[in-house]
C-alpha cells in the first residue's frame, strides 16, 4: 500500500513540476519542450513500477518496467531481427508502395471528375473493411513472408493517402488557377508548379497518419501467419509462452519505431513545407 | 457469484474437442453435483494460463508442455485430471514432395502452431537433430495460421494437423488420403500429453476448492464417457452451444468420432508413465529447451482418487 | 445524386475485374477438382501446376472457368457467392439466430457504440484540458501520438485479462479497446476546433470581460462543432474496428469479429468476405448517421449553407 | 474639448519581444482624450495605431509610461466594461443570428432576458437593421455585417467606443453612408470615440481631432484639431476648409513615411 | 485615342446560372478600348467590373454579344499570352522566393534561363524591389507583395495589362506611391491598361477614361473622358479640374447605387 501511495504522491509532485515548467519563463525553450513530456512519461513508468510491485501483480499479467527493460537489454539481437523483418521489410516497403499507388491514382482521379465521383465513395467503403478480416485473406494470397505484410500495409495506407492527396490537389484558390490560365499553362505545368506544391501540407498529413498505420498493419498481419521472425510473431508466441516481458519489449520497440517514423516524416514536412503558416514561427 | 461456481477456460473455440464438458453441462451432471459451471471458449489470442493467473477462471484445459512451461515461468499450475490419454497431433505432408520419413524434412517448409503448441515439434526436431532455422540442412518453419490453407495452397510442404480437426479439413478440401503422408507424434514416440485439467497450486490448499474440483472432475468424466458412447448426440450438443454459428454438423460429428479415440483409454487420472514420457521429450529439446529441469509437484492424483472412488 | 452514375460505373468495373480475378486465383483448385473427377487438364499433376501462374493455367483450361466461380472454399469467392451468403445470413435467418449476421452485427454494434461514447467523452475532456492547460498540452500530446503506434491487437488480450482479473467482463472490455482507438481522432479534432477562433474573437470577449467558462461556452465550444463532427466520423469507424479487434480475444464467441475469425479457422472464405462486407456496410451506415446529425446540427446552428 | 479628460496617456512605450529581436511599437506616446471627443488615428501600416487602441482597451500591456482611463487603469476600466470595441472585420459568430450576436455581450454581462431583448431591438434600429435580427451573418452584405458589429459594440452602452478600421473592407459608397450614420450616432449619444483609419477623407470628415502617427518606432508626429462644425453633410468634403485640413494631414503623413 | 482599337465589346451579356436562379452579371455592355488607353472601371460591389475584366481575359465566357481582342477571340488572345493580369490579392506562391514567383510565368512560357534571369532583374528594378529577389513573400510587407505581383504580370511583357483592384488592400500612402509608379510605367511602356477600383480619386488620377458601372443587371451607366494631361504629379488631385471630374464620377456612382 505504501508503494501505491508513494506512486500517487509522485504523480502529484511531477504534475506540479510540469505545471511550473510549462508556465514558467523557459516554457518556449526546446529543452523544456522536451523535458515536460519526458517527465510525464517517466512518472507514468515509475507509477507503473510502484503499483505493480505494491499490488503484487503476477508477472504473467503485467510485468514491471524494470523487468521489461532487462528483457529488452538481453534480447537486442532478437528484437533487431524482428524489427528488420517487420518494419524494414514489411512496413516500409508497403508504405512506399501504398503511397506511390495512391499518388498515381490521385492524379488519375484528378484528371477525371467522373472517376473521382465514382471512386471516392466506393473507396471509402473499401477502406472500412477491417484489417483483421483482410489480413488473413492477404496472407493466404501472398504467402507467409513479408510480402503479405507489405500488402496489408498497402491496403491500409492507400485510402488515407488518396483522400489527402485528392483534397490537397483541390487546395488551390480559384484565383491561383485563373492565374495559370492567363499564362496559358498546360495541365502538367499547373500541376507541377502550382497544385503539387500547394498540396504538400495535405500530402504530409496523409503521410503522418499512414506512418502509424503502416507499422500496426505489418504487426497485426503477422498474427495471421508468418515465418518465425517478426514483431507480431514474437508478440503472439510470447503471449502463448507467458513471456510477458518479451511481449512488452516488442511493444516498446513498436512504440519507439512508430514514434521515430512519425517524427522523421514530421521533420521532412518541416523542411518541405517551410512556407506554410503552421510551420513558420 | 456463488461458492459452488466453477469457470472453465477452454483452449480453443467451442468444438467437439471439448464435448465432454458440454455434455456434462447439458445433461445436468454438474448440476447433480451442485455445481454451477460456466464454460469460457478460447481463441487464438487467449492464453489459458494467463486467464487462470488473472482469476478469470478456476480451471483451465491445457497441453502439458505449455502448462509445464508456465510452471517454470513462475505460475504454479497443477494437473488434476487427464481425460485425454493419447495425442492427436500429427504432421501432414504432400506425398509428391518425396517425404517418407523425418530424414526427408531437410530443406522443406513446415507449418507449426505456436502459442505454446510449438513445444512438441521443437522437441521432436531436436531429437532428430534437424535445425529449425531454415537452410538446406534444416527445416523452414512457418507460423501456421488457423486453417489448412498453407498446405492446400502449397505454401508449405507439411503442416501441423490434429487427427480430429485439421486433417478432416484437408480431406474436406477434396484431397484424398493417398495424396498425403502423415506422421503421428504418438507413433514417432514424441507424443506429449494434450488436454488436461489444470488449477492453481495455491487454490488446492483450500479444502473447499478441492472438494469443488472433485465434483467437477467426476461430472466431467461422466460427460466424457457419455460423449464417447453417443458421439452424434454429443456433437449436436456442441453445435447447440456454439454461439458463432460457424460450425457444420458433419465436421463436428467426424471430430467427435476422432476425439473418442483419444479419450478412450483414460478414466481421468494421469498415467505417470505418460507424464514421464512427456517430461523426457521436453527435456530432450536441444538448444531452446521448453523446460530446463524436471518439474516437481506439477500433478496430483488427490482429486481423481477422490472423484473415482 | 450526380454521383450515382459514376459510382455504378465504377462498381460495374470492379465487379468485372473481380470475376476475372477469380479465374487465376481459383484455377489451381478447380483443376485439382477436375482432375480428381477424371477430367483431362493441362498440365497434369498438382505438383506440376504448383509453380505455374494462374493466368497461364486459366488460359489453357477454359473448360474449368465455371468452377472458379462456384467453389466451396475458394481463394477468392465470386461476388454472387458473397452476395448470396450475405442475403442468406441476413434476410433469410431469424435475427435471434446465431447464424444471422444481424445478430452478430448487433453484438458488435453495442460494443462499438459504448466504446465510441467512452472514447468521445474521453477525447473531449482531454482536448478541453489540453486547450486550457499548457502543462497538459506539452506533456500529454506526444504520448497520445505514441499511444497510437502501439499495435492494439497485441495488447487487446492483455487488456481483457487485466480487466478480467479486476472483475470487469462482458461488453466493457471490448468497449474500452474500441474507445482506445476512437479517442485519438477526437482529441486531435477537438483541440484544433477549440483553438479555431482567431485572436480577434478572443480579444472581443476580453473587452466584455468574459470569464474562462463564458469564453468556452460562447466561443470555443460552438466554434469546435464542425471539427467535432469531422472527427466523430473518423472515430466511429475506428470504434468499429476496435470492437472487432476486442472480440477476437474475448473468446471469439459472438459478433462480426468472431465471424471473421471462425471463418478463418475453417477456411470459410465466403463467410469471411460476407462478414467483411457486413462490417463495411455497418461502418458506412454509422458514418452516414453521423453525417446526418452533422447536417442537422450545423443547419440549426446556421452553419449549414 | 472643455469636458473632463477620459483617456490620458503619458510617455507610453510598448516593445514587443519577437523571435528576431525587439519591435518598438509605441514610443513616448502622450495624448489626452476628452469626454465626447472623436479622435481619429491615421498613419502608415505598422505605426502602432492598433497597438495604441489595444493598450487603451487593456488588450496589450504597455512596457513604459502611464495610461489611465476614467482615472482607473485600463485593466480596471475593462473589468468595469467601459469599452465598446469594433474590429476591422465584423467578426460576427456565424452560428448566431444577428440578434444573437448583439445579445452576446449582454449575456456575458448578465443582463436580464427582458433587458436583452429591449436593447437588441433598440440598437438594431439605431443601425438601421430592424427586421434583420433573425438572419444569419452570411445572409447579409458586408456593410450590413459591419453595422451589426457596431450595434454589438453599442448594445451595452459603454462610454468609450474604440473602432479599428471598421470600414476598411467596404466600398466607397457604403462607406460614405456608414460615415454619415456614425456621425449622427456620435452626435446623439455623446460617446468618446477612438477611430483608426487609413483614409484621409474619412478621418477629416469624422473627427474633432486627427492624430497622425509614424512608424519605427511608432510615435505621434502631429495632432490636428478640426475646425469643421459638428454638423457635417457629405458635401462638406468638397469645401476648401475640408481640403485644407486633408492637405495638412497628407503632408503630415508623407513626412513620417519611409518607403519600404 | 487615335490609335487602333485593341478591345472591342459589343452588346456583351453574361448570365450566371446559380442554385437560386440566374444572375445577370453583365447586360448590353458596349465599349471600345484603344491601344495605350488607361481605362478605369468603377462602380458599387456586384456591378460586374470583375466579370467584365475576366471576359476580356477569357476567364469567363460571355453568353451574348461579341468581344474581340486584337481582332482575335479572347481565348486566342489568351493562348497568345496577350494579357498580364493582376488580381486583388497578391497571390504569390509562398514556397517560391520573390524572384521565383516572377520567374514562374517565364518558366511556363519557356523562356531560356538567361532570358529569365535578365527579365526578373529588370522588372524587380522597375517596381523598386531590387535586392528583395531572394526573400519569401511572407517576409515582405503587403505593399511590397503587391508590387511583386505587378512585376510578375509585367515580366513577360504582354501588351494588355488587366488589374482588378490591385491596391485595394494597401494603405493610402503606399497606394499613392504605387499609383505614381504605375503612371510612370504606363507612360514609359505605352501598354493598354484595364483597371478596376473602388476609389474615386484613384480612378480619376490614373485614367484616360473612367467607366462607371451599376448593378442588377451590371451595365455601363457613364463613360467619362479625362481632360487631365498625361503628366500628373500627385498634387493634381487638389486642382479644381480634378475635383470636377471626381464630382462627376461620384454623381454617376450615386445615381446607380441602391442601398441594400
Ligand atoms: N503581437 C505582436 N508581436 C510582435 N509584434 C507586433 C505584435 N503586434 C504588432 N506588432 C508590431 O508592432 C508594430 C505596430 O503594429 P500595429 O498593428 O499597431 O500597426 P498599425 O498601425 O495598426 O498597422 P496597420 O495599419 O497595418 O493595421 C508593427 O511593426 C507590428 O509588426
Ligand atoms: N461564378 C459566379 N457564379 C455566380 N454568380 C457570380 C459569379 N461570379 C460573379 N457572380 C455574380 O455576378 C455579379 C457581378 O460580380 P462581379 O464579381 O463581377 O462584381 P464586381 O463589380 O467585381 O464586385 P466587387 O466590387 O464586389 O468585386 C454579382 O452579382 C456576383 O454575385
Ligand atoms: Mg492595425
Ligand atoms: Mg470584383
Describe this structure in words.
The complex is a heteropentamer, with one copy of chain A (about 280 residues), one copy of chain B (about 300 residues), one copy of chain C (about 300 residues) and two copies of chain D (about 260 residues). Chain A has about 280 residues and is an all-alpha fold. Chain A is built from eleven helices and one strand, in the order αααααααααβαα. The mean pLDDT of chain A is about 85. With about 300 residues, chain B is α/β, with parallel strands linked by helices. Chain B has helices spanning about 20-25, 30, 50-55, 65-70, 120-130, 150, 165-170, 185-190, 200-205, 205-230, 230-240, 250-265, 270-285, 300-305; strands at about 5-10, 35-40, 60, 75-80, 90-95, 110, 140-145, 160, 180-185, 195-200. In chain B, β6 (about 110), α5 (about 120-130) and β7 (about 140-145) form a beta-alpha-beta unit. Chain D has two domains: about 5-80 and about 160-255, P-loop containing nucleotide triphosphate hydrolases (Rossmann fold), CATH 3.40.50; about 90-155, no CATH class. Chain D has helices at about 50-55, 75-80, 100-110, 115-125, 140-155, 170-190, 200-205, 240-255; strands at about 5-20, 20-35, 40, 65-70, 85, 160-165, 190-195, 210-215, 220-225. Chains in contact: A-B, A-C, A-E, B-C, C-D, D-E. Chains A and C meet through α1, α2, α5, α6 and α9 of A and α1, α7, α8, α11 and α12 of C. β1 of chain A pairs antiparallel with β7 (about 140-145) of chain B, so a sheet runs across the interface. Bound molecules: adenosine-5'-triphosphate (2 copies) and magnesium ion (2 copies). The site of one magnesium ion has 3 residues of chain E, from α1.
Point out poorly predicted stretches of chain D.
none
User: What are the distinct ligands in this entry?
Assistant: adenosine-5'-triphosphate, magnesium ion
Highest-level CATH class of the largest domain in chain D: Alpha Beta
Biggest β-sheet description of chain D: 6 strands, mixed
User: What would CATH call the homologous superfamily of the largest domain in chain C?
Assistant: MetI-like
The overall pLDDT of chain D, averaged over residues, is 85
Count of alpha and pi helical runs of chain C = 13
Number of strands of chain D: 9
CATH architecture tag of the largest domain in chain C: Orthogonal Bundle
Q: Give the low-pLDDT segments of chain C.
A: none
